[in-house]
Amino acid sequence: MPDLSDGVRTEEALGSATDLWAAYREGAYVPSVRPWLGYMMLLEKAQGSLRPVRPKEPHFRVFAEFSLSSYARRYEILLTKLLRERLYDGAALLLSDAVTGPNGGFEEPCAELAFARFAESLLSRVAATIRTM
């Protein structure tokens, strides 16, 4: 069963990026080029992560894109927003089930969050850094 606390994962992803960029801005990594920051999420492909979830709205209404979205879809939205806000340089969302996962099997629900794009971004940064050494 997947960890269904999507709010906690959201706080971790947002908080980690915010803290790192604040430290970089304040010179914590001097001398340093701008860090590359990536986020890869592996989610169990199971009924609990794929079925729609009705949000609890005791204090305010959630955005329509989250209403009746599965946890997998919510993580896709989160990672896409983190990339587009430029809090992360690369992000990947992988789904893997209990049968094929142990042998390396996984699915990518969103082309923008594919592992190849994540790896390409990281490898491009590594290559650029090596060229400047």
Task: Briefly characterize the structure.
The chain is α+β, with helices and mostly antiparallel strands and 133 residues long. 41% of the residues lie in helices and 11% in strands. The chain has one domain.
Explained architecture:
- The chain has 133 residues and is of the alpha+beta class.
- The chain has one domain.
- The protein is 41% helix and 11% strand.
- The chain has four helices and two strands; from the N terminus they run αβααβα.
- It has helices spanning 6-25, 47-50, 71-84, 115-131; strands at 38-44, 90-96.
- A two-stranded parallel sheet has the order 1-2.
- α1 (6-25) packs parallel to α3 (71-84).
- The longest helix is centred in the first third of the chain and has 20 residues, at 6-25.
- The mean pLDDT is 91.
How does the overall form come out from the CA principal axes?
A: flat
How many strands?
2
Number of separate helices: 4
Give the proportion of residues in helices.
Answer: 40-55%
Mean pLDDT: 91
Q: Order of strands side by side in the largest beta sheet?
A: 1-2
**What class would the helix/strand composition place it in?**
alpha+beta
SS strand fraction:
5-15%
Let me know the largest β-sheet. Answer: 2 strands, parallel
Tell me the Rg in angstroms. 17 Å
Stretches with pLDDT under 50, minimum 5 residues? none
Question: SSE order in H/E notation?
Answer: HEHHEH
| Total count of domains | 1
**For the terminal residues, how far apart are their CA atoms?**
46 Å
